[in-house]
Amino acid sequence: MPYNITLIPGDGVGPEITEAACRVIDAAGVPIRWETVVAGEAVIPEYGTPLPQYVLDSIKKNGVALKGPLTTPVGKGFRSVNVTLRQELDLYANVRPARNLPGIETRYSGVDLIVVRENTEDLYSGIEHRVGRDAAESIKIITRGASLRIARFAFELARRQGRRKVTVVHKANIMKLSDGLFLDCARQVAEEYPDISFEEMIVDAMCMKLVQSPENYDVLLLPNLYGDIVSDLCAGLVGGLGVAPGANIGDGAAVFEPVHGSAPKHAGKNRVNPLAMLLSGVMMLRHLGEMEAADRIMAAVIRVLEEKACLTYDLGGSASTSEMAGAIIAAL
Q1: Among 213, 237, 261, where does a domain finish?
Q2: Residue 124 above 90 pLDDT?
Q3: Catalytic, out of 11, 67, 171, 179
Q4: Which positions fall inside the Isopropylmalate dehydrogenase-like domain (predicted)?
Q5: How many whole angstroms separate alpha carbon 276 and alpha carbon 260?
Q6: How far is 243 from 280, CA to CA, in rounded Å?
Q7: Is 179 a catalytic residue?
């Protein structure tokens, strides 16, 4: 029986990289019935929102979605589509691996870590208001239930993948109640996993340590805001957002998406590197239990990167998005 998977092509370059990723996944022989639903800027005139209810309904029905980048207006207008998706579907765990890939040169080596970010609360709860004319206030929400849940997710992921250490990242020296609660929950869960090392790191020190010696870290556990920032920092260690996949996982659904934005200036030019989208698809296949297909795709990606014969401009080549996808398919 084929898997029924919601496909959200996205805005800007989204449709191009989504098509490329789907071609590779289909070529790997995984039986998938893609259910394409449109979200983002294109549907606002008709539905009055970038995230119509039919998109949520499709993901709830299928349980898994592969999503291209979506544009959210800055500073005004609509609430972030990504934040809304995560909260509406209770996708409480944001998972962002960062590892060095052969053929992608950076100043770092030996990086192989995973950022696990709480995805539903903190300052991203979006609870804010004006205080008079000249001030505004945002409310930081940290709850015991959400903190215990994401900590247990991080330790379970570490154990499942045979990883050695979980580092909880916080600012409890200043935000003693909110970050203090998150830290206490991480300590409590850590006691249940004596086989996994546990350490604590203040967020500013963590950023310094990551650019000094990222090879020393394995699984990072963070609240929402710090996780958003640190995960981009980690992407920078291994080549940038163009090679950074991501997943948003809950108990009832999972949405896999690249970390980078919609890059509207490149839309329709068939020139953007599809790796972040494809690697998100590989994460999706592993989530489905399709390990053999995921391993084959990764081997093909590594071969194409090592040969350097068919790479897009941002990877040092001159190939188009579709040509690079074709080369990965040929390497399968």
Answers
A1: 237
A2: no
A3: 171
A4: 4-328
A5: 8
A6: 10
A7: no
Residues 252-301: tens digit of each pLDDT: 999 999 988 888 788 888 899 999 999 999 999 999 999 999 999 999 99
Structure-block tokens of residue 298: 């990764």
**Would you mind telling me the total number of residues written for the chain in this entry?**
332
Q: Is 308 a catalytic residue?
A: no
How many domains does the chain divide into?
2
And the tokens for 291?
């390990």
Closest CA to 36 of 6, 66, 13: 6
CA gap 300, 308 in Å, rounded = 12
What pTM, to 2 d.p., does this model score? 0.93
E-assigned strand segments in the chain: 3-8, 32-36, 64-67, 93-99, 112-118, 128-130, 136-138, 165-170, 197-202, 219-222, 245-249, 254-258
Query: In this structure, are 230 and 113 located in the same domain?
Result: yes
Catalytic-labelled residue, pool 124, 179, 217, 226: 124
| Catalytic residue from among 204, 251, 269, 308 | 204
Angstrom distances, CA of residue 125 to CA of 128, 175, 253:
9, 17, 20
Q: Pick the last residue of a domain from 205, 237, 269.
A: 237
Q: Phi first, then psi: what are they for 194, rounded to 5°?
A: -65, -15
pLDDT in tens, 181-191: 999 999 999 99
Q: The domain that contains 301 carries what CATH number?
A: 3.40.718.10
CB atoms within 10 A of CB 261: 16
In angstroms, how far is the first alpha carbon of the chain from the final one? Answer: 23
* Three-class SS of 81-114: HHHHHHHHCCCCEEEEEEECCCCCCCCCCCCEEE
Same domain, 166 and 193: yes
Residue 52 neighbours by CB distance under 10 Å:
17
To the query of whether residue 60 is one of the catalytic residues in this protein, the response is: no
